Amino acid sequence: MLIACPWCGDREEIEFKYGGAAQIAYPTDPDSADDAAWARYVFFRPNPKGKMAERWVHSAGCRRWFNVVRDTVTHEISPTPAAKERR
Amino acid sequence: MAEPHQHPEHLWRNPEPKRAYDVVIVGAGGHGLATAYYLAKNHGITNVAVLERGWLAGGNVARNTTVIRSNYLWDESAAIYEHSLKLWEGLSEELAYDVLFSQRGVLNLVHSLGDMREGRRRVYANRLNGIDAEWLTTEEVKAFCPIVNTSPDVRYPVMGGTLQRRGGIAKHDYVAWAFARKADEMGVDLIQNCEVTGFDLEGNRVVGVQTNRGPIAAGRVGICAAGHSTVLASMAGFDLPIQSHPLQALVSELLEPVLNCVVMSNAVHVYVSQAHKGELVMGAGIDPYTSYAQRGSPHVVEYQLAAAIELFPIFSRAHVVRTWAGIVDVSPDASPILGLTPIENLFINCGWGTGGFKATPGAGWVYAHTIAHGQPHSLNAAFALERFVTGALIDEHGAAAVAH
Questions:
Q1: CB spacing of B388 vs A73 below 8 angstroms
Q2: Numbered residues of chain A with Cβ closer than 8 Å to any chain B Cβ
Q3: In 10 A of CB B110, how many CB atoms?
Q4: Residues of A whose CB is below 8 A from B240
Q5: Packing angle, helices B30-43 and B172-185, rounded to 10
Q6: pLDDT tens digits, A21-73
Q7: What is the dihedral of CA B212, B214, B218, B223, to 10 degrees?
Q8: Which value does ipTM take for this structure?
Q9: Cβ-count burial of B257 within 10 angstroms (0-12 exposed, 13-18 middle, 19+ buried)?
């Protein structure tokens, strides 16, 4: 599988580490978050059959994190305007 | 053990779905079929349908590496897997079908001082739970499995191992077919090419399912869908802490008998056994990304083959004949989720990740109890979905002598 690093271009999958779903927000008010809210933040992640926004890090390359949209059925990766966002 | 090695012409009916059942099981894999069997056998509930979107036993029960053992560290895991192992020991008689359960021993190699401490601790924990477990020195490993490379002159020398002699392998297809045949005999409808597309809810209670073959009313519904668990749960309106990953496996060509037991190595990361027909069966860890594609990346296979050659130099001339993947449902603590859901009368059995095959009879047994009584069996009470809120995890990551 080729993965498009927004800084380095298409590279082999073995140069990357997987970072899971993108856009996971930290609880906005952590002091008042209850156990259920913490459970959702810590343990529950999107697991769609189809397009998924996710994080990868180019660990054997530029070592920077980025976002892609990958299809979990075809493994096709499409670029996203959010490629260089930090979350 | 009536029909060893024969394929009877007729193992089950292919009925049209009725419009209503007492219980609908979603997924005719090993766990779903075992659940249907024990619902009929243990609880007298025979007005049951098992709905399968593809063909019977075509998912992970057809794709796993068939290792059976119960040498888990934590009490909750040891109890449920040992219950399952005891059922395996009588399964061919029970189902009148030889499932080729072979207790040839499962050997877990250790390669570091940390491994040794963990392995010995697990041996003691297993014995306290009444599970057979032995610690082997390097020399004893060599004596038990002579083809393992125990030379000190390798990158990760074998420093000993743990052995569960009652562990082994079984013929995965026969297991599924045997459960299917007996469930069918007792009146369970096994319905293939029937995909669940939605759940009918009245308030917070499930009353039936929508399928590509029309609506089917149900008193109770049990999800048993491995990698597709979150897809079904989201149709019903609740979330599961499950990620679906490819888990790859491979076989060599058929060889003369060369490997007499199951060998697993966590540190070098491969597990291997020799199937009854003669092929070497190997597996390792999951691919890192989530997927529903039933295929993984070639470098994962390359790493596991490198590990296999390190441990077994004799395998270096064997050929890889086939590789494939199943989609496994991995939970945050690498333990199953088996019990109630936020929806009344809807039950969940998932999260077995890389280790579900060995649990087939045990999981079916306790899941049938859970569905029949509307309450978990004592063996699966700790595996409730609520544990991710209460924090009472059953953390078998790295504790289970297995490459999760």
A1: no
A2: 1, 13-14, 17-18, 20, 35-36, 39-40, 42-45, 47, 49, 52, 54, 70, 72-75
A3: 26
A4: 44, 47
A5: 40
A6: 999 999 999 999 999 999 999 999 999 999 999 999 999 999 999 999 999 99
A7: 0
A8: 0.96
A9: exposed
